[in-house]
TrEMBL record:
Superkingdom as given in the UniProt entry: Bacteria
Protein's UniProt name: Threonylcarbamoyl-AMP synthase
Domain YrdC-like: residue ranges: 14-201
GO molecular function: double-stranded RNA binding
Native organism: Chryseobacterium cheonjiense
Length: 204
């Protein structure tokens, strides 16, 4: 059964964040809030956790396209090829924020991402995922929670989310109602921003 942790964004309780970190380090799956929709996350370096995440999305791990959640841009060089100054400035001007940026991947990707030529990077404007990544010491893998009802598309109530995913994840972080609009996906592999999916973020 999933454990529900009520963590408040205004003042995240350190002991509860530490419990989340311990779960991630032990290969557990979490549901966490972001500046857009609630999402599933796990340790990017734990291959078994990544396989579980893929199973939940009804896909094979090698075909999965899980974003990498960072707390700032300092991890970029760990996963991406060198990027132009202009692209870096563009990223810096839009992050943290409700965007997923597609960048060219380097050859140092975690095992679960091997063979991927591109990678989606997220830096949510929300203290809880930022704090989780900071305390964990490295980014987490992430994918949005889709609702079975395609009209609603995204679940916003953490209690209903916890009910639905009760036996599939280890922790559900209840941080109040989430948004129902996902991140805007922007492809930066050509050096120029190309919006792949329009979501909450607006590219000016």
């Amino acid at each position: 059964m999933a454990k529900i942790l009520r963590i408040y964004p205004e003042n995240p309780q350190e002991n509860l964040i530490n419990e989340v970190i311990k779960t991630l380090n032990n290969g557990g799956l979490i549901i966490y809030p972001s500046d857009t929709v609630y999402a599933l996350g796990c340790n990017i370096f734990d291959i078994k956790a990544m396989e579980k995440l893929a199973q939940m999305k009804k896909t094979k791990l090698e075909k999965a396209r899980f974003s990498i959640i960072c707390n700032d841009l300092s991890h970029l060089s760990d996963f991406t090829r060198p990027i132009d100054t202009s692209v870096f400035r563009f990223l810096k001007s839009h992050l943290p924020g409700p965007f997923t940026f597609i960048l060219d991947a380097n050859k140092s990707l975690p095992l679960a991402y091997k063979g991927h030529k591109t990678i989606g990077i997220r830096v949510p404007d929300h203290p809880i995922p930022q704090l989780i990544v900071e305390k964990l010491g490295h980014p987490i893998a992430s994918t949005s929670i889709k609702d079975d009802d395609e009209i609603i598309e995204y679940s916003t109530d953490p209690e209903l989310i916890a009910e639905k995913y009760d036996h599939l994840v280890d922790i559900v972080i209840d941080s109040g109602y989430g948004d129902n609009v996902a991140s805007t996906i922007v492809d930066l592999t050509s050096g120029e921003p190309e919006v792949i999916r329009q979501g909450k973020g607006i590219i000016l």
